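Batch 3, record 17
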Amino acid sequence: MPTLWLVCLLLVLAAAGFVMGRARALSSAGGDARTLHSLPNYYGLNVALTSLVPALAVLAIWLLAQPIIVESRVSKLIPAETVPEGSTIGLVMSDVRRVAAGLDLVVDAGLLTVPEASGLRAEERDVRALLGEVGVALGADVRPEVLAAAQRSRMLNHTGGLLMTGLVTGLALAGLGWAYVRTNKDFRARNVVERGVLVLLIVAASLAILTTVGIVLSMLFETSNFFRLHDWKDFFFGSTWAPNFRGDSELSILPLLWGTLYISFIALLVSVPIGLFAAIYLSEYAGKATRALAKPLLEILAGIPTIVYGLFALLTVGPTLAKVFGKGGLLGVEWMAGATSVLTAGVVMGIMLIPFVSSLSDDIINAVPQSMRDGSLGLGATRSETVRQVVLPAALPGIVGAILLAASRAIGETMIVVMGAGAIAKFSLNPLDTMTTITTRIVSQLTGDTDFASPETLVAFALGLTLFVLTLGLNVLALYIVRKYREQYE
Amino acid sequence: MTDLSANAAPAKRHGASLLEQNARTRRRNRAEARFRGYGIAAIAVGLAMLLVLVFNIVSKGVGAYSQTFVTLEVELQESKLDKKGNRDIEEIKKVSTFGYAPLINSAFAAAVKEGGLETKLKAKDQAGILSKSAPAQLRDYVIANPDKIGETVSFRFLANSRVDGYLKGRVTRDSIANDKSISAEQLDFVDQLAAAGILKKTFNPDFILGSDASDQRPESAGIGVSMVGSLFMMLVVLALSLPIGVAASIYLEEFAPKNWFTDVIEVNISNLAAVPSIVFGILGLAVFINYMHLPMSAPLVGGLVLTLMTLPTIIISTRASLKAVPPSIRDAALGVGASKMQAVFHHVLPLAAPGILTGTIIGLAQALGETAPLLLIGMVGFIASNPPDSIAAGLLSPNSAMPAQIYEWAKRADPAFYERAWGGIIILLVFLVTMNTLAVILRRRFERRW
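Prediction for the assembled complex:
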């Protein structure tokens, strides 16, 4: 792990720089800290930061950029006509990567020396068997151009690594030297350090943007790859979801969207009445003691990980429902084939969302001014009439916002539907049928060995992007409504 | 106002006094009681669900902590294990687990004879009640202690998961009718062994400390190694999200000018907090694994993905606690000549620290229970058999995480794994409850009301 060692080296250099800078500043002041412009530690920090920060930044950028550069260089080595029928350059490149990683392992295992590995010829030696020895299984024999590309990529990565180590260490030393030379008693170290720290703070704050950009870009990029391989009309307007890893799949989002919305609808059907009534009771009727006890207890439900709900759906709720509606069940009807169904997932998700709806609505109901209640009660209305005719209409926009937020949660929920909803994509109105959702399909298309050149894998990114846009839209709308409503009473 | 009461004759009410409710008032009062009842019912349903959930977890999961063991005196016959008698470790290693099976068979025969048990089972079927790991356990012991060859040593073997299920009530004589791996005679034999005290159900520390096992051996699966995986992920999350989150919040709360850039960041953070967790998994797969070629299934990658997910939570709570520090503190610091940066780092930040810590612990607890993104970066579906031996290996070698391990067990066909999934959830919840309690205690203890 040379990168780790490099980082350690940088940290050691920075620590040395701190001690040296501090000592130099003190000695330039003749040992009397009072004549320094800044406190002695600032001089040390200045040297340490000047040495560490640019070097770390270059290291990070280099680590990000190297794979793209190597990839683009290496893919030029593979002529378009040698790409086999029915394959793509992307597939060949993933072969190249696998061979290159295998060669690394071979060298690590001591089966070949470094020059032997780079001089290897596919014509002379059975590379597939060689890689098999170190546990890298290949689907077919290694073709000469793939081996050459793999060797080239290893060489580029190797020189890249050396260059990076040299550059980063040099930069750290240069920074250290420069800052050290600048250190004397009149140097305004505090101002410089504080400016540097402010830049670091800004960078940290921008990471949030970077994450969003990363999410959007990574999904956009793979989605555009997907639409190059697959017809967009089928994705948005088709009616069947039937992935087939031998190709020629029908990949339409509509049946998945239907399942997602149906399950979310049932979840809201469970959680909204319960959550809303709980919130009304807690804010309008309950005494202090009841509130202090019931509210945190309800919120425990929100803190339970979704895997627990998933297991609850799969092993408890599903089988219970099957005992009632299934074959040989209590009702004597045969409406349910297995434990997984829309109802199973919907009910459990509803339980999960109860505290979500109740605490959001509670906040909103509490924000309704007391004077409105007093007015209504003073006219002789009962409490329930006050709630129904005054408080709820006033809180309605906020409650709608809360429900939208809950809906966005339900649409993006994964574990409960993966374990409770089933795997068959279809349009059906029967809540006891198994159905599948967008998140479930993302999980199933992306777990296990993924091949980034097939539409069956890439469709997951298109699904993810749809999910992202859907939940983001709901959130923005909900936050807008809630905020607007809050302003009304402030 | 006074003339109103003076002039108007007392209005004639519709034949009723104030002391007696008329039909309409009664109806309204009934509606009131009903409405109140709905509220109570809603809370009762919510709490009942919580109760059902907790009861379900505990009742189904407790079984995983005890396991059926068979204690046998095994004679480590020299003729089988070390034919030449020179105790050469290489030669001993050549004896495969098949070579150890007869030793167990004869140990059973001895136990039957000694206990005066009656069974028509063949020795091989008697040994069939043990876990498939029994010969391997014996072999590991012999390779570790070659000098014990020839002696008789007492071993505690795991019983087969069916036998274990029989003692726990999961497997009944009806349910094994079509089961090839155990017969009714074997269950009779188990009853006899249990009566003789050879077979016992006791606490099983291996469930908490051990590693996952293959589909064939649910009885020896444990959650320990995936716990280590979770620990390493949490270390990564803590090391990255705390400094970055605090730095971002300090900038946004203390330094940021009001401009479009700050607005974009703020909107971004509040939206990221609501992005479905699986989307972060997709990001992790596309960026960290497919693009940066970090190893699949590594806790480092899991930690990075969870960091991105936890950051908004930490930023939101840190900003709230920074905001709670009154401006007078800043003014006082600035007034005695501190720079803005010094005022923030020397005075505001220490005062906000308890709140920040509480928020961080809650964020970590959230990350600990998160499963969906881990499925996408490959933290399910394989068995890490040993805990990592160094920090680098802990970060980079494939491992699982607690929730991913639980999911993996829940997916397997053998119901014996379900018990372990519930048992794993107990451990997960113990961690979460501890972390949240810690957060509450910290808040109570150190939070200052200004």
